[in-house]
Amino acid sequence: MDELDIDVVADVELDDPVLIEGLPGVGHVGSLVAEHLLEEFEAESTLVRRIYSTAFPPQVSVEDGVASLTCTEVYAVTETGGEDLLVFTGDHQAQHGDGHYMLAEAFLDVAESFDVSQCYALGGVPTGELIESYDVIGAVTDESMIDDLEDAGVEFREDEPAGGIVGVSGLLLGLGVRRGVDAACLMGETSGYLVDPKSARAVLSVLETRLGFDVEYDSLDERAEEMEAVMGKIREMESQASMDVPSDDDLRYIG
Amino acid sequence: MDELDIDVVADVELDDPVLIEGLPGVGHVGSLVAEHLLEEFEAESTLVRRIYSTAFPPQVSVEDGVASLTCTEVYAVTETGGEDLLVFTGDHQAQHGDGHYMLAEAFLDVAESFDVSQCYALGGVPTGELIESYDVIGAVTDESMIDDLEDAGVEFREDEPAGGIVGVSGLLLGLGVRRGVDAACLMGETSGYLVDPKSARAVLSVLETRLGFDVEYDSLDERAEEMEAVMGKIREMESQASMDVPSDDDLRYIG
Amino acid sequence: MDELDIDVVADVELDDPVLIEGLPGVGHVGSLVAEHLLEEFEAESTLVRRIYSTAFPPQVSVEDGVASLTCTEVYAVTETGGEDLLVFTGDHQAQHGDGHYMLAEAFLDVAESFDVSQCYALGGVPTGELIESYDVIGAVTDESMIDDLEDAGVEFREDEPAGGIVGVSGLLLGLGVRRGVDAACLMGETSGYLVDPKSARAVLSVLETRLGFDVEYDSLDERAEEMEAVMGKIREMESQASMDVPSDDDLRYIG
Amino acid sequence: MDELDIDVVADVELDDPVLIEGLPGVGHVGSLVAEHLLEEFEAESTLVRRIYSTAFPPQVSVEDGVASLTCTEVYAVTETGGEDLLVFTGDHQAQHGDGHYMLAEAFLDVAESFDVSQCYALGGVPTGELIESYDVIGAVTDESMIDDLEDAGVEFREDEPAGGIVGVSGLLLGLGVRRGVDAACLMGETSGYLVDPKSARAVLSVLETRLGFDVEYDSLDERAEEMEAVMGKIREMESQASMDVPSDDDLRYIG
């Protein structure tokens, strides 16, 4: 295998498709969104590419006893009711800095071969505390994109995310702009401690508005309820701990 | 030296040989099996290749004062009573992700030059607790291989191994399937805390059934008894600890 | 993107310019100096190059919602009242050893294309304790440069910095000398615990003397005062701690 | 700079020279020996090569204010009273596994250009405890070399060093044998906690016997006395600690 191998699984005609990148990251927000889209549009989705790389962890995943090599899968989604989509998803990010650059370029190469001119990199932004209201923070390659995204509910803040955007999501913007691709990163706020379906829902809602499709949220809401139960227990433990020494933080969380 | 150097030590005619990979890993299960096979078939084994790589640790091992560079050794084994074997063994895995990919490809290159069409990657799967009954978990490149392996006692479980298979064993499956090689990974259950000859015996027993040879287990049983003594001490310590506060775990182990 | 990409943003005629390198490091001394120069000479500065590399962290920074890929920016500064300058600045150093070498060579390539023959690499040298008097320690590529720098207040000490100079600043000297570039490293003493505008001022003062320009210090002094407040609190805490067991160290700091 | 740059500083005719490698490592035994040889034979030594590499740490050392890039220096030593020497010394080993392989090959390339046919890699082997008697452990590329080295006082032990030999010293043997170079590693026993001039002396004494030269030990003995003072304090502290609970270990050390 070369350090990068792109398998052509199928070819599908897409009409001015929009790239959606949802790899694992903070709160698994990006991958939850990508997986949910592929679940909801299962009948309309076709696996078109598999991207293998020696920059991925040297491992296979096993499902029902059958092993498959770590890769990024690319799905073409048509007849969404809105824009056609090209969805990038998988179980792993690259393992080192050079690999992140190589994979982001590979993603943009595939995007180019499908004439993608618009790109959404999805992720989570950690707040460090349990949250009630799920804002979506944005970053773009060009200032002119901000207004439309603000209309769809995205917030742009002067100094956020403070540490910049790390990994393939950041590079899709950083390298995309150098190729003339308009790219936005949508980051759902999330505590950062748990897989966060609610944050994923907030991001999905922005995509619906921007891209003109509608999806059901049942399965995502179910996962959210499971997580809610976990979070309930955490709050309970915090509440008991605060019996002895109540603090501002406890009041904010439980209030 | 190039990043990969394959020394041809000897050439042996093999009849449709089966690749056996047993490099160090969890519980040293894979390397115990490979070493035991080479011990039992000493008279029938020929060292045919040495695979050197800058991806191995930069070190030599020393035996009776003579140094030898870290490598993977490949032995051809004939007249086993069953299938001919091509056994890969050594003291080290690659040191980084890219190196794992490079070595797995090199193993498959050597296999191809001997017309191997079937491959067993051996390893251990950690259970995190001392165990009584040594199951062997399987993973395969193609669903069609499952029935025969189940007949030989291998278990296939929906979500195991949970984290996938890491290292050269996983990659022999992940990269093998891309070259048309049927590959299975046999993972002996093991606590993960100790070198585990009993787990190795369970894996060997599957290989006997599948590949039609018979081996003695005396030396392996001896090592198992030594380990049993160690485990006995561990149980004793647990038992004493549980005098004060008995727990479910203690009951399960000692019962 | 290649492992190194140098974007030509503009070209400016410079008269025998002096390279100033101020990347992040101990006490952020180097980057404070570079930023302050660009602030003070804003009207006289032109962004001429952006140096991108896969050796940088795989990330974008975000300002007012707009993302930009990690890079080193190179500014041409004219009409300083003294020498023309070529200032290298940015948010990140390379992530690994090989990358440091690659970037330092790239810096020297850019310098060569502007006919730079003199180079100042800026940084901090950690003393491990809060300090009152900010000396600037020097290192050079050729003994003949020492006298002039000593006249400008730089100190050369037998065994300092003890551990040598790590990162791009050190390599500009180590690789520069192999290309016939006279290079000096100016290291402001700093505790190493805090961003240190006072140490930056000491280094700037040497540059003023050597390169014949004058800059205002207001904004740097403001930052120094903010830091002074932080340091004041640290001293206070030390003072309280020393109530119980006064030590030589406390006396030295507080005196 | 390329990943490897070998500067030819001078060329010296050598008569069947012996390679001596003494880079930093356990107890700094190897580098102490190399430095002592160059000190004692100062008048007979000529710097012939500098080996630069991006695998070294990205740093310069500074002496009297003048910076020099990390490298391995190679000295030709003639008129020793015994064999001519080619001594490899420097402040750093490679920073990663691939780099160790690259540098060891570079060392052997230089050795070949001087028609070296015999190689001594020097180092320390950690015992983990303070020691009284300084044995020298050996490892060789070919069994036939053992007798002569045993005659010179080197010990060859069945399972030592247990973990093999890591770094450039090990690779000079592992890669040397593949090029037809006879190589031995001489490892002075050392606690592993301190720079150990006594261990260096033991190794030097073997080299004297094997290579037919004589050196003074005054400067090495001075350093040994300084270290002895440090070790004395350690013993004292151990002794005091053992007042309360004497143990076998204490008895062994203090006797």
TrEMBL record, chains A, B, C, D:
Gene3D superfamilies: PAC-like subunit (3.40.50.10900). Pfam families: PAC2 (PF09754). It comes from the Archaea. InterPro entries: MJ1210-like (IPR004426), Proteasome_assmbl_chaperone_2 (IPR019151), PSMG2_sf (IPR038389). Coiled coil: none annotated. This is Proteasome assembly chaperone family protein. The lineage of its organism: Archaea, Methanobacteriati, Methanobacteriota, Stenosarchaea group, Halobacteria.
